[in-house]
């Protein structure tokens, strides 16, 4: 477990731009070191804000997009192309504007795909795809993602791991089907906490007043069953990227000294 590091930016626009710059650097460094990079995307407002900022950044041309594997931390289990699917929103924000290798874009299954409406079968299929991509040196059933992004929900959910639902208790499987999510749609697919913790770096994004309570709870010692964001950490680094509004409830000792 890595201790959380907190960075606070002035507002959500600056947070998105700074996170995009950070992600570009991380991808370029991973590609220089290992030939390719892998990133797990998140849905939600802050995740899409980061992708839009990346699309607008001139530095995006420093990335070799054809040597980037993209995975998803969760997906709303809806038909292919549905406007509420995280992959649809990511395509609109960034993916359709860069030269990705389609074989390296690992979208989670749709509800009208080969598994039909069986969300458990769809979750198993995604787990199998992750397992095929894992290398022996990864020591697990998922690749060692370079960066795994997570938007933090106002209820402290991350990916589609909601407080007290069975998915957040999962300790064996890497991907699960989720039913009864309190945020629509109720049926989803999610990486589990063990899969999230296989990442080298986990970056949690939260901006806006409506996230302040969740951020304070998750960073103040709450348990992961009650506050799933508290259980999300990376092997080398856990970074909380916030704006001032989301950081407003943090106790002084958690607030970074050099914040504006
Ligand atoms: O439904 C979801 O919500 C969370 C958080 O979204 P936000 O809009 O409150 O920032 C997101 O992380 C997740 O991927 C998504 O499916």
From TrEMBL:
Residues annotated as domain Glucosamine/galactosamine-6-phosphate isomerase: 11-240
Known EC number: 3.1.1.31
GO biological process assignments: carbohydrate metabolic process; pentose-phosphate shunt
Pathway(s): Carbohydrate degradation; pentose phosphate pathway; D-ribulose 5-phosphate from D-glucose 6-phosphate (oxidative stage): step 2/3
Keyword Hydrolase: yes
Keyword terms of this UniProt record: Hydrolase
The reaction(s) this protein catalyses: 6-phospho-D-glucono-1,5-lactone + H2O = 6-phospho-D-gluconate + H(+)
Family annotation (Pfam families): Glucosamine_iso
EC class: hydrolase
Database matches in PANTHER family: 6-PHOSPHOGLUCONOLACTONASE
Function description: Hydrolysis of 6-phosphogluconolactone to 6-phosphogluconate.
Annotated family: Belongs to the glucosamine/galactosamine-6-phosphate isomerase family. 6-phosphogluconolactonase subfamily.
Protein name: 6-phosphogluconolactonase
Lineage of the species this protein comes from: Bacteria, Bacillati, Actinomycetota, Actinomycetes, Kitasatosporales
């Amino acid at each position: 477990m890595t201790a959380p590091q907190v960075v606070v930016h002035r507002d959500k626009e600056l947070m998105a731009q700074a996170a995009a710059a950070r992600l570009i650097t991380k991808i370029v460094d991973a590609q220089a070191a290992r030939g390719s990079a892998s990133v797990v995307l998140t849905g939600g407002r802050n995740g899409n804000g980061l992708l839009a900022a990346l699309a607008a950044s001139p530095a995006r041309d420093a990335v070799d997009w054809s040597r980037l594997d993209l995975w998803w931390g969760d997906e709303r289990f809806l038909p292919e192309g549905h406007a509420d699917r995280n992959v649809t929103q990511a395509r609109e924000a960034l993916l359709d504007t860069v030269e990705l290798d389609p074989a390296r874009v690992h979208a989670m299954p749709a509800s009208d795909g080969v598994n039909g409406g069986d969300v458990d079968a769809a979750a198993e299929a995604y787990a199998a795809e992750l397992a095929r991509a894992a290398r022996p040196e990864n020591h697990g059933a998922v690749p060692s993602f370079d960066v795994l992004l997570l938007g933090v929900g106002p209820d402290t959910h991350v990916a589609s791991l909601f407080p007290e639902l069975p998915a957040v208790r999962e300790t064996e499987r890497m991907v699960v089907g989720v039913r009864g999510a309190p945020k629509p749609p109720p049926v989803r697919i999610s990486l589990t906490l063990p899969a999230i913790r296989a990442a080298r770096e986990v970056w949690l994004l939260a901006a806006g007043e409506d996230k302040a309570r969740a951020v304070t709870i998750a960073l103040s010692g709450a348990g992961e069953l009650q506050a799933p964001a508290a259980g999300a950490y990376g092997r080398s680094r856990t970074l909380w990227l916030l704006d001032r509004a989301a950081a407003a409830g943090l106790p002084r000792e958690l607030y970074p000294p050099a914040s504006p």
